TrEMBL record:
Keyword list, A-Z: Magnesium, Metal-binding
Keyword Metal-binding (UniProt): yes
Any Pfam family hit: RraA-like
Superkingdom in the source lineage: Bacteria
Protein's name according to its UniProt entry: Putative 4-hydroxy-4-methyl-2-oxoglutarate aldolase
Binding site for Mg(2+): D138
Transmembrane segments: none
Record-linked InterPro entries: RraA/RraA-like, RraA/RraA-like_sf
Cofactor: a divalent metal cation; Mg(2+)
Gene Ontology molecular-function annotations: metal ion binding
Residues where substrate binds: R137
Amino acid sequence: MTYTATGPLPAAVLEALGRYDTPTICNAMEIVAPERRLIGYTTKQLVCPFPDLPPIVGYARTVAIRSVLKSSLAPEEQSRRRIDYYEYVGTGHGPRISVIQDIDGPDVGYGAFWGEVQSNVHKALGCLGVITDGSIRDIPQWAPGFQALAGSIGPSHAWVHAESFGGEVRVAGMSVKSDDLIHADQHGAIVIPLDVAAKLPEAAELCGRRETPILEIARSPDFSLEKLKAALKRSAEIH
């Protein structure tokens, strides 16, 4: 059922981005796209039950869910909507990351869309993980290697259902459109504009070189304020 179209970026670019954690990608973004210093990434804490998983990089599949109110659709239409949703998730540019906004307002996270079944189904559909401000459950039975960033962990799915999909969503302060390129790990997630993606690995290496002299003296038994000042000067001279 799944189909992965050729992405707008070479696979090598996504692989290179996946070698860095998300904070480093954020640092690199400040170099290549300084106008995005205050936008494009999660700004609220999300729960990550699998902090040891490596970073994921993929194209967004966007969904809006709710669980407090029962779907108004007839059972037959609900079944058709579910198939349409899975077809949307399982097609397009790959790899993919599911980005789900819970639109229950003050009751956000009341019911979990994600658990043992959905994590395994979405993994089979070609997704690498989920980023949601809603809740998740079934942590021990979760699909192996499938990353999760969630607003909370809870026990029930209540009346949870997909209200819409393919539109713009906002999760933990990050606005995402379908097919946006996402980088995520245990720290959070960031949207990477396609036109700067290939520049980020080099910028990330530059960030690392600039941090090296500072970290070396900070970790040295011979640390002193004067040596820190000298290290900061050397760091500023690295281009």
